[in-house]
Design goal:
Chains A, B, C, D, E, F: GO terms for molecular function: cyclic pyranopterin monophosphate synthase activity. Chains A, B, C, D, E, F: Its EC number is 4.6.1.17. Chains A, B, C, D, E, F: It is an enzyme of class 4 (lyase). Six copies of one chain form a homohexamer. Chain A is about 30% helix and about 30% strand. Chain A is α+β, with helices and mostly antiparallel strands and about 160 residues long. Chain A has a single domain, classed as 2-Layer Sandwich (Alpha-Beta Plaits), CATH 3.30.70.640. The two termini of chain A are about 30 Å apart. Chains in contact: A-B, A-C, A-D, A-E, B-C, B-E, B-F, C-D, C-F, D-E, D-F, E-F. At the A-B interface, helix 1, helix 2, helix 4 and strand 4 of A face helix 1, helix 2, helix 4 and strand 4 of B.
Chain lengths: ~160, ~160, ~160, ~160, ~160, ~160
């Protein structure tokens, strides 16, 4: 077993992708925020009068997709061509599933852009609600889908 | 129910903390990375010869604790005085629990610094291992502990 | 006449403020975006169905207030304690006046934080509307109010 | 009327430009700083002995053209190939017109790079002179010219 | 004699490279850190038990290669495709030579990316050791090699 | 021998300085750029007609003093209160000695702010001259002076 971001002697590198062809890459990642049903209902009700929690989180997620080179040490700087965030809310369960999709015509995949984007959108929801409820948590941060690279299309099990 | 980061009319603001006193604030947050036992064993074995995955993730987590003002839209810029990352590895379960602790003498809490730090350390582990295993996921991103603010000490249930 | 940010020989410096006392500083700056009445009416009507232009601009303005040390070459890094954006819309005139208020307990004023914040909120409105109307312009970028420094309170003429 | 940066349901997105062809894009934007004739004369006289206000502002404008992805929420990261700032000074009027020109071979236009560049150069002039005169203002922030995109060449009225 | 980054009138510009063809560019730069033999021996001995100084410095160097557009005023934003850091240690001399190699398929060279990368790796070694020894210094910061541009291959004298 | 930025088990940390008192800290660092006498003479002659190389480098050095938390992995974010750059030019020797001085009222020293500031000013000189001369190098990057911390005043040997 070997690791992507180390050379043959175990030294961390930014892997050389200069010889790879640009292809159209897409990745979708998810993160699920857990809170009480009451709090989630309040978020959905209050959108226009008490503040748009999900609107702020959406912008945080999109902004984060552009900051991956600064956040993930061995990542390549990529020119992202598309970023979007969807929220799937289940009031009974008290869950907000964030889905972040990123697309770029690049030499390497955009999985980290999608993963970081979904995570920061979820963390922003946490930030805006932590005054109301302290035990909000985030789980199921994972890649749902990717396509466009040499390793082919990936779809998370069960999708 | 009201939200921290909106004014009375629902407009997003950076809440005025100029009237608050500085106190010593500490927060610890966690995030757990799930992978196969084999992969985790390889990470632990290979530290000195094939590359130090956890060492890279630790630095990513510490760096992220300094970038919260850029990442969380309505957060205050804080002068962090301490940041540290611990890893609790369980090879049988294939889990790495990241714990990030942040401390500052400030007017507002450092929960987001700890939450973002733990998340980015976990996402960096994902990045470095995604070439070996595609279905790695992160869960249990949550606040474990905080103290030093007006609302008193918080400890996650079961700790 | 001499300039703030140069030493006695005309060399650019970050002026030494280490000997100054911290005081509570507030500044409000404005910028006015000019567009057609129709377009402004559409922004106000569409808030919840076609997209919240002013909500996005508000977040851009708040984020910008935290980026002044990176944008204004000789500015000091400041720990901002409050940032808020107001919009005054006049549909007949086709104008959106952005007002940005920033507060900090610091050794130097927060005028630039307010000026940059108002400007970036206005530029974001431009960005979101430029596909509909090409001749949108911004004027009256100016300081409305400041207080808390040695030079006393300032209020723009006519306010 | 619809807005560039929202999807069909009014959600903010970074619009997908992956299907667009790269073309050579140029944009020029302007911003005019208003001050007293005396102050402007002093800026022009003092260039080599008391400090080069316009030289500092020029660098601030060029630097800002590279920071648009961080500043404008839904903008695409672009690889800029050229940035330049011109100043047109009218001592009698007490005006400095900043003109910022940006060029890139890209899938989307560089208007925002030029608008942000001109604005930050103007705001830097304000910063450097605000100790001498408090009522300096900026107006006529607008696009003068763009070419290279699908919508053709644009030239502001009267140019 | 003329300078790269000024126009015909001496004004600083980001030189227009939009007309240049993309070619594969490589650059290697070096920086040498001087310390006592004892301290260097300790760094090499302690790697796994007292902390991996060179491992941290390597990541700082790679991260810095991505920050050149923010650090060097008139540089172009480049999409780096490879970055790596080597350390050549001479315990008798008490020297660590840092070599940073950067590669990109771009319109302009990557010398500054390599120079900044080597410098920040060296400065990070300084940072981590300055508590043990105050007179650590860095010298021989220079370009060792570049190829891929119009001006042909360059190799520092004596290599 | 132990290292500043690792805990007892060799793990990288941002050292806890929350218990330290704020004191006024000053540091001066230097870096010397070596080039031909002709090139240096041209820089000094051309200041006002062909471009102000040292003026650009000065601003790069000041800007870099504010970016240390992003560049040096285990550094603390500090609120700098003063930054200045001096150049000592020796045409016969073809040397520009950069001296960067930084001051802050803080819990930890500003050596790294001064070291990074001097280095980036020197690297910017290199950038602006590399088209004229390829073998420009930088040496004697070192701390000249610091005061204000627990360890007392430091002055480099021979000063």
């Amino acid at each position: 077993m070997s690791f992507n971001h180390f050379d043959g002697q175990g030294k961390a590198i930014m892997v050389d992708v200069s010889g790879k062809k640009k292809t159209l890459r897409t990745a979708t990642a998810a993160a699920t925020v857990h809170m009480s049903s009451n709090l989630l209902q309040a978020i959905l009700d209050h959108k226009t009068t008490k503040g748009d929690v999900l609107g702020v989180a959406r912008l945080a997620g999109i902004a984060a997709s552009k900051k991956v080179p600064d956040l993930i040490p061995l990542s390549h700087p990529l020119a992202i061509h598309h970023a979007a965030i969807e929220f799937n809310c289940d009031v009974d369960q008290g869950t907000v599933e964030v889905q972040a999709t990123v697309r770029a015509y690049e030499r390497t995949g955009v999985e980290m852009e999608a993963m970081v984007s979904a995570s920061l959108a979820a963390l922003t929801i946490y930030d805006m609600c932590k005054g109301s409820e302290k035990d909000i948590s985030i789980d199921a941060v994972r890649l749902l889908f990717k396509e466009g690279g040499k390793s082919g299309t990936y779809r998370a099990e069960g999708l």
